[in-house]
Amino acid sequence: MNQIIECHHCGAVNVIPEGEYFGGYCECCSSDVYAAPEPEEDAPVSDYTPADSLTYLTNSAVIALDAAYEEIHDVNGEGIETEDLPDHLQAAAAIVLDVRKSIRREAAKHCDSSARTYSNGVPINIRYQGARLIGPDDRPYRPGYITTVHPNGTPDASIPPQSIKS
Fold first, then answer.
1. Which residues make Cβ contacts (< 8 Å) with residue 33, sequence separation at least 6?
2. Which of 19, 83, 92, 98 has the highest Cβ tally under 10 A?
3. pTM of the predicted model, to two decimals?
4. How confident is the model over 2-12, as pLDDT tens digits?
5. Distance between alpha carbon 148 and the CA centroid of its chain, in Å?
């Protein structure tokens, strides 16, 4: 199945055949398709709806709950199965999952969970490459990340320079 990626900079549709690597740059305008578009000078980015706020809060809360769930299972640096955790941590893990489920269920009633942008055109998430690291095989690599973006255009994570050499 082909992957379809729309460039929010120029509007071009990039079709990536199954199994092929997509470098993240538009074939038409060479822009990073995952980078937030530059806001227009006169366009207020503060124009967003209550549904946009709910989408942002849902995504941010779910990410935080997923991180808490992972931390609960990472006792002493080991990935421990839920049934092997002490009772109080099993209860904490169950609470985290219940809250996550409730947030998702309620947000689904008011938000389009498949939307890629807010009502004002700001992307909901940004994919970016992390800082350059050296892998176990002594080869450099840049891990990929995704961060949520506030409807006003501010990413939740500070994004390092996206130059290939950095």
1. 5, 6, 7, 8, 9, 14, 24, 25, 26
2. 92
3. 0.60
4. 677 777 666 67
5. 5
